[in-house]
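Project outcomes to date are best conveyed with an example. Our students and postdoctoral researchers have been running inverse folding experiments weekly, and each run begins with a structure described purely in tokens. The record below, which covers 671 residues, was selected by the lab manager from last quarter's runs and is presented without edits.
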């Protein structure tokens, strides 16, 4: 009876009704045992840690994550703030439980995830549902199961209380990569053969050097030895020459005896190269730069800094996101999920050398998105009085004193940041003057843009009427819709070719005007690439609209051929003009916003022109962050006309800049 069978029977006799759990444990043990000839190498998280490369990889990842500050933040209307008063702040940032610091807790849980694929902690709450402690649970004693109703349950084998069922709300679960999203894969289990080879190499090295780093050999005697002489010769030779302490001793051979070594010398056996390769393999498995495992063979002074930054971006960041999402899911409850969130700070690891940091700070100060105190905080320095002032480009004066540079006087600028309509009402003329050059460019290019859209739409309408109409007449609606799908995909490639020349020329002029508005010395945007990407997106939306319009028009039509002719005439006469006007406004504001972003502008203001509709007047003067939305998808905008009529509009998309609706001629300015 083999050892495996004896273990199975012993577990059955000892543990009775718990045998299924131990059977799973036994299967895991068998799966992690690498057999090599008469011997075997057992690969477990414990044995894998005896490999220096695995130890270094696990240590650098777990300690790097644990060393980053973990803060709880409250979402504000603009930005965020540290919610130090929240009960979770102390638990996550300082002390998860009375026995462990946050560093100990996070590094231990990270080690569990890296080796077992999963890290678990029990969530202890008070009577009010607030988290008061987090306690580590061992991953090799946890099972994740689905109940009959589909809900998850965690079953933990506690030495003191036996098998205990825990609800998901009671377990903080950090998962590694996994198949079903419920449990992570064990890296050690999946790469047990790779790690088994490394462990086998360690064993070989131990035996190799225990034998004085010399291969075995034979003693050749010209005559025949008796059994007793053979035994004494072997014993005396090993006592005198085997082992590292006997290296270099002189061998004295008698009676014509010769020594002949067998096997390969170390340089031919490539033993050291094998060990180097195993280090590279471990680095690949854990996605850690080799230089962090003390493998500096391919590292240079010029690339180690970049590799360290890549370590933060590609190695640490996915783990940090896993932590942040798990905390958000399990530790915050109810409305807290919308109001609060936890986040690691990684800026300190991405700072680079002193010169690079100071250059980046100078750019941030120059363009107004960093204050002196912002810089001092990133350098771990205390704030100074007056250090919260932001500067503007060129003249580098406080923004509150700038006139015309951002479209408002100093007092209006301070009020504008509080987003009150009263603040911008008296300054709308200045804002309109800022955007007047771009609005004038719309008018200058409007005829050329309209001509391009008419040519594009004329080709589309004629093709559909002639070719598609023939299919509709002979084969019916379903065949026509199949033909239409194929045609629109081919026509999609024609749209950018027709519109690109005039739209690029227009966008270049608008970009230069927008850069001049904010005092930028040059346009820091690849306008040509921007327009190509813009038209590619427009083409996709255009054919989707064409498909939807024709389906709506023809599916229930009693005279589809006549309705198709009428619709194609409308496209050439009306739809071309509508889309030309909308895309004129759309592209102009889009490229202006891109220039503002590249110039470091932080806020945008909506500006209406002429006799605008009540909806546009309602938005006029509204200020949002540069990455924000003036109107959300599904949001209702309500306005009142001069005669008291209430007008409502529900947005079908996220509106980051005008137009809001068909025919809208509004603009944005840097606020």
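After processing, the design step wrote out the following sequence:
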């Amino acid at each position: 009876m083999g050892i495996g069978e004896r273990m199975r029977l012993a577990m059955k006799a000892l543990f009775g009704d718990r045998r299924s759990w131990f059977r799973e444990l036994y299967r895991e043990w068998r799966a992690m045992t690498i057999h090599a000839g008469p011997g075997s190498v057992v690969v477990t998280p414990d044995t894998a840690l005896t490999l220096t490369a695995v130890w270094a990889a696990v240590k650098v990842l777990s300690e790097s994550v644990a060393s980053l500050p973990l803060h709880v933040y409250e979402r504000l209307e603009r930005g965020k703030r540290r919610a130090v008063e929240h009960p979770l702040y102390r638990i996550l940032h300082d002390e998860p439980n009375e026995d462990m610091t946050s560093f100990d807790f996070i590094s231990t849980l990270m080690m569990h995830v890296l080796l077992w694929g999963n890290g678990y902690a029990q969530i202890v709450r008070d009577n009010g549902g607030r988290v008061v402690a987090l306690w580590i649970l061992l991953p090799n004693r946890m099972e994740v199961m689905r109940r009959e109703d589909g809900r998850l349950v965690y079953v933990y084998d506690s030495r003191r209380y036996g098998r205990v069922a825990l609800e998901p709300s009671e377990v903080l679960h950090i998962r590694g990569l996994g198949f079903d999203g419920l449990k992570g894969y064990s890296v050690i289990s999946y790469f047990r053969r790779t790690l088994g080879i490394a462990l086998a190499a360690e064993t070989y090295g131990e035996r190799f050097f225990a034998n004085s780093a010399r291969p075995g050999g034979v003693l050749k005697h010209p005559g025949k030895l008796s059994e007793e002489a053979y035994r004494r010769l072997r014993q005396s030779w090993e006592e005198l020459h085997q082992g590292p302490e006997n290296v270099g001793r002189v061998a004295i051979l008698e009676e014509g005896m010769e020594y002949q070594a067998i096997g390969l010398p170390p340089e031919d056996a490539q033993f050291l190269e094998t060990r180097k390769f195993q280090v590279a393999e471990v680095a690949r498995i854990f996605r850690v730069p080799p230089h962090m495992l003390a493998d500096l063979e391919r590292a240079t002074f010029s690339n180690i800094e970049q590799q360290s930054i890549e370590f933060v971006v590609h190695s640490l960041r996915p783990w940090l996101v896993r932590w942040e999402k798990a905390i958000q899911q399990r530790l915050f409850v109810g409305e807290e999920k919308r109001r609060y969130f936890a986040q690691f700070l990684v800026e300190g690891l991405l700072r680079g050398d002193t010169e690079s940091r100071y250059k980046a700070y100078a750019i941030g100060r120059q363009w107004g998105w960093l204050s002196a105190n912002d810089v001092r905080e990133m350098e771990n320095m205390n704030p100074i009085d007056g250090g919260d002032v932001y500067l503007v480009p060129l003249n580098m004066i406080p923004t509150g004193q700038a006139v015309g540079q951002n479209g408002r006087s100093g007092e209006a600028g301070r009020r504008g940041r509080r987003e009150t309509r009263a603040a911008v009402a008296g300054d709308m003329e200045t804002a309109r003057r800022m955007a007047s050059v771009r609005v004038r460019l719309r008018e200058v290019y409007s005829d050329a843009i309209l001509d391009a859209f008419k040519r594009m739409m004329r080709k589309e309408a004629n093709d559909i009427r002639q070719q598609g109409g023939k299919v509709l007449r002979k084969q019916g609606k379903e065949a026509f819709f199949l033909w239409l799908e194929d045609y629109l995909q081919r026509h999609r490639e024609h749209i950018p070719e027709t519109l690109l020349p005039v739209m690029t020329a227009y966008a270049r002029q608008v970009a230069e005007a927008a850069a001049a508005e904010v005092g930028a010395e040059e346009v820091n945007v690849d306008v040509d690439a921007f327009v190509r990407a813009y038209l590619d997106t427009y083409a996709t939306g255009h054919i989707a609209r064409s498909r939807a319009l024709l389906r709506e028009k023809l599916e229930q039509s009693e005279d589809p051929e006549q309705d198709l002719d009428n619709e194609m005439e409308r496209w050439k006469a009306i739809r071309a003009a509508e889309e030309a006007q909308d895309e004129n406004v759309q592209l102009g504001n889009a490229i202006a916003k891109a220039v503002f972003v590249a110039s470091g502008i932080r806020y945008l203001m909506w500006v209406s022109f002429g006799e605008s509709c009540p909806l546009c007047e309602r938005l006029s003067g509204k200020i949002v962050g540069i990455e924000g939305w003036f109107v959300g998808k599904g949001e209702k905008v309500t306005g009142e006309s001069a005669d008291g009529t209430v007008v409502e509009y529900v947005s079908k998309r996220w509106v980051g800049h005008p137009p809001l609706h068909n025919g809208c001629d509004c603009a944005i300015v840097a606020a």
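Confidence is low (pLDDT under 50) at residues 9-19, 31-39, 394-426. The first strand starts at residue 33 and ends at 36. The training component of this project remains on track.
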